[in-house]
Design brief:
The chain is an alpha/beta fold. It has helices at 14-23, 41-51, 60-63, 78-87, 117-138, 152-164, 188-191, 195-198, 201-219, 337-340, 343-356, 364-382, and strands at 4-10, 30-37, 68-71, 91-95, 142-145, 168-176, 225-233, 257-264, 269-275, 283-290, 294-300, 305-309, 329-333, 388-389. The strands form 3 sheets. A 7-stranded mixed sheet has the order 11-10-6-9-8-7-14. Bound molecules: nicotinamide-adenine-dinucleotide.
Length: 393
């Protein structure tokens, strides 16, 4: 490495914040965040002042000063920003999910959970084709910010697959949180869906990645997802739901629970659970059942530190882990969450690849497969779990 990499950042929410923190911990490359932009002038000015980053009115205004555009805006904005960066020949990092279907230009009367899903799938496939074409044409580095790929356990699993040439027979995975820090999460027209896309994309991405690795090692080509059967539910909007004010409930038109059963083109399977209805912090893992070993990768709780604190007040200024509602009693603290969740690893890989001209572990192909699989899952869920083919791009 050694070369200077100039980065422009879009988005000053939760993701923008952890991208700055991780970019500033990258080793082996001279990284400079030369600009930041977001929708609201007040929040981008505050963010720029906090981190000492020049503020721009738009992404376009930053493009001729940067080598890489880091997209941390909500999903509805991703495609346009990716296309602008690719056409300008700039490398790209894009937060998950890659894109989605967001309804009509005026979303006032649009309810994504009630809208027909087959047209959404078609729209998403068109978007994926446009993104793939733009990135392929210019050959820029595209880092799909799927942190599960870079979690320490998933990277150890990659090594096991590569060195033992094993066959993975089945996998299970989950990502569940008590909602999201983003104010627009829960609104389909901005998020592109609910738990399946917002959270299920993570274990699905990790699982699709491992089958890609297995395919490359054993056959010289990725093993791809072939079909999906899915269900979705709106548990916090059930008429009989009893709200004890502990679980976030303000979802407009998204599911808060989802399940996907994936079959791969080699006949093996994976099962993914995802939800907004979990207390006690975030719950993220992937389990692998192979023909020569079995593994369980815990992203959160990762089990690095069990902590007992009898008085919550004593810990009021101490961050323990994401989305625990109390600092009192026993907790599973995450002493270095950016590392255990894979955030640091993904940013390190993307920077190294942009500087060295190499391909990242979490690439555009993985983003395309993940997004196509999830919108096929929405079509399946509309038919209460019918098996739906996943388009190949
Ligand atoms: N990998 C992870 O674990 C993880 C965690 C959180 C969020 N995310 C992803 O990061 C992205 C952002 O999520 P967030 O929680 O930070 O959201 P947020 O709503 O908190 O922040 C979004 C930011 O983008 C800006 N923005 C919105 N529309 C824009 C547009 N058209 N042009 C420019 N800026 C625009 C907003 O002003 C805001 O600053 C999403 O894709 C989300 O799924 C990933």
């Amino acid at each position: 490495m050694g070369k200077k990499l100039k980065i422009g950042l879009i988005g000053t929410g939760f993701a923008g914040d952890f991208h700055v923190r991780t970019l500033r911990r990258v080793y082996g490359a001279d990284v400079e965040i030369v600009g930041v932009t977001s929708l609201r002038p007040a929040s981008r000015e505050a963010f720029g002042a906090k981190w000492g980053i020049p503020v721009f009115d738009s992404a376009e205004a930053m493009l001729d000063r940067i080598d890489l555009l880091d997209v941390c805006s909500p999903p509805y904005a991703h495609e346009e920003q990716i296309l602008a960066a690719a056409r300008a020949g700039r490398h790209i990092i894009c937060e998950k999910p890659l894109t989605g279907a967001f309804g009509p230009a005026d979303p006032t009367d649009f309810y994504g959970d009630k809208a027909p899903k087959a047209p959404m799938l078609q729209e998403v496939l068109e978007r994926l084709k446009r993104i793939k074409q733009a990135v392929d044409e210019t050959g820029v580095m595209f880092g799909y910010a799927e942190n599960f790929v870079y979690a320490p356990g998933i990277q150890k699993e990659r090594e096991i697959i590569e060195k033992t040439r094993c066959q993975i027979l089945r996998m299970t995975g989950e990502e569940s949180h008590n909602g999201s820090a983003s104010p627009v999460y829960g609104i389909w027209s901005q998020a592109g869906g609910g738990s399946l896309i917002g959270k299920g994309c993570h274990p699905l991405g990790g699982i699709l990645y491992l089958k890609r690795v297995e395919g490359m090692v054993r056959h010289g080509a990725p093993i791809r997802p072939a079909t999906v059967s899915a269900r979705v539910h709106e548990l916090t909007r059930l008429p009989q739901y009893e709200d004890k004010q502990l679980i976030r409930t303000d979802y407009r038109d998204i599911e808060d629970y989802g399940f996907m059963h994936i079959t791969f083109d080699d006949g093996t399977v994976a099962d993914i659970l995802t939800s907004e209805v979990v207390l006690g912090g975030i719950y993220d893992y992937v389990e692998v059942f192979a023909n020569n070993h079995r593994s369980r990768s815990r992203l959160s709780p990762a089990g690095l530190m069990d902590l007992y604190n009898p008085r919550g007040e004593e810990f009021k200024d101490i961050y323990l882990t994401e989305k625990v509602s109390t600092q009192e009693g026993w907790s599973f603290a995450a002493p270095d969450e950016f590392f255990t969740m894979g955030y640091q690893g993904e940013i390190q890989d993307f920077v190294a690849c942009a500087v060295n001209g190499t391909a990242p572990q979490s690439d555009l192909g993985l983003a395309l497969d993940t997004t196509a699989a999830i919108y096929a899952a929405y079509v399946s869920a509309e038919q209460r779990g019918a098996e739906v083919e996943i388009g190949q791009l």
